[in-house]
Structures are given as structure tokens and as C-alpha cells.
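Subject: two folds for Thursday's group meeting

Dear M.,

Sorry for the delay on this. The cluster queue was jammed most of the week, so I only got both jobs back this morning. I'm pasting them in the order they finished. Each block is the input sequence followed by the predicted C-alpha cells. Could you check whether the formatting survives your parser before we put anything on slides? The first protein is the one we discussed after the seminar.
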Amino acid sequence: MNYLSGTGLLGAIMTGTTLLRGSRDTQLTWRSALAWVSWGISLALAIGAVVDTRRAKQGRPVSPDSPVYAKQQREHEKQAKKESKGIKPLKR
């Protein structure tokens, strides 16, 4: 449930409802079609961010093109540094 309240996903849902309300009484133009395509891309990116965040929290690998990837790499480097010093990592 924590992921569903993310700002990206919440913003995409709100934008979708606004687009839906605005398109009820108007005809489809290239501008409205472009708005729907843009909304679809935003929704896909928000869902992808939620999936990547969840995968990272579970300790599973994340795609290198994800914004979460850099954070995950830093965590792996910290853990490797601690292990090389003989310090046991904390379990989550």
C-alpha cells in the first residue's frame, strides 16, 4: 500500500481523471490524442518506478536505466566495504 501513495502514481491517476472529465463532451483532436499518449507514458513511468523501488527493497536486481539503480549500487558498495573490513551487515 505504501507504493500506491507515491507522488508519481498519484499524479498520473489525477491527470487521467482530469483528462477523462475534460474529454466527455468534446471531440477527439490531435491535441487531446497527444494528451492521452502523454498520460499513458507518465503512467507507465510511474508504475515502473514503483516496481523498481519494490525490487530494490526486496534485494533483487534493478535495471541499469532505473533511477533506483544508482542507490542500489551504493548500498552494494557499502556492504562490500563492510564485509572486506570484517563487519557483518545488518539484516533487514
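Second protein, same layout:
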Amino acid sequence: MSNPSPLSNESITPSSPETEPHREYYDRIVRSLKGPVQFLSFWAAIALPFVYLPLLTQGLGDPTVIVAFVTLLVANVFALYVGHGYDG
């Protein structure tokens, strides 16, 4: 003989009907933005390495150039990650 659980299944309530339309609206927005965001990220990942060239020819001796280079590198990695699913 086991003791019943202190919480019954009735204490777990399903989500309220009010929250469902908001979730569907959010999902629809995400689905509609996914394609354009992947498109832009894909092409940004291709174009960003061309911006490295002037920085590298100038040299990485100046701290502002180093910060710009690292920022572009991080942006390129992020663009590669976001745009990798684009099959354009």
C-alpha cells in the first residue's frame, strides 16, 4: 500500500486559452523573419572577409584597427552561424 502523492493531477492546469493566440502570433513572426535573416546572414558572411583586406594591408599595429578586426571577425562568425541553413 503506497501513500498517495500530495499533489494530484488536477493541480496541474493546462495553459490558459489567452496565451495561445500570442504564441501563434510570435511563431508566425519568427517563421516570416527566418528566411530573410538567413539570407542576409549568408551574404554578410561572404562579404565580410573583403572588409578584412584593407585592415590587414594597413597592419594590426594600431589598437583601434585590432578592435575593428576582432569585431568584424566576431560578426563574421555570427553571420556564418545564423546563415548556415540558407540554401540560396
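Two things I noticed about the second structure. The chain has a mean pLDDT of 84. The radius of gyration is 24 Å.

Cheers,
T.
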